[in-house]
Write a structure and sequence with these properties.
With about 120 residues, this protein is an all-alpha fold. About 75% of the residues lie in helices and about 0% in strands. It has one domain. The protein has four helices and no strands.
Length: about 120
């Protein structure tokens, strides 16, 4: 499977799980559907960006750092838009999603084919 597609799929799945983790907080019960949808979209964006990065740069450490950075940046944007100050609760899972996607796309995604 190509690196961008792997990133997209894995980012979406992990993003949905990230959103479902909001069930643990009573103040988010009324917004759980929007949180899951938003986290899934955030995972898709981080995954596809990390997948394309992994396709261009074949380096596991740099790919992990890029994925972590993407996850943290997107999570920070969500925190700023939310305005309630759930920094740790939003940024920690978002960063982990990016970190895992960065690792997986570098390690398990198919390298681009070079034609002769």
């Amino acid at each position: 499977m190509s690196k961008p597609i792997l990133g997209l799929l894995l980012g979406g799945i992990l993003g949905a799980l990230d959103g479902l983790s909001a069930i643990l907080y009573p103040e988010t019960q009324n917004e759980i559907v929007q949180i899951v949808i938003g986290s899934t979209i955030k995972g898709f964006i981080a995954g596809i960006a990390t997948g394309y990065f992994a396709k261009k740069y074949q380096s596991l450490p740099i790919g992990i750092v890029f994925g972590l950075g993407m996850g943290l940046i997107l999570a920070y944007l969500v925190v700023v838009m939310d305005g309630r100050g759930f920094y740790l609760e939003i940024m920690l899972p978002g960063g982990l999603v990016g970190l895992i996607v960065g690792f997986a796309t570098q390690r398990y995604g198919a390298a681009p084919r070079v034609s002769a």
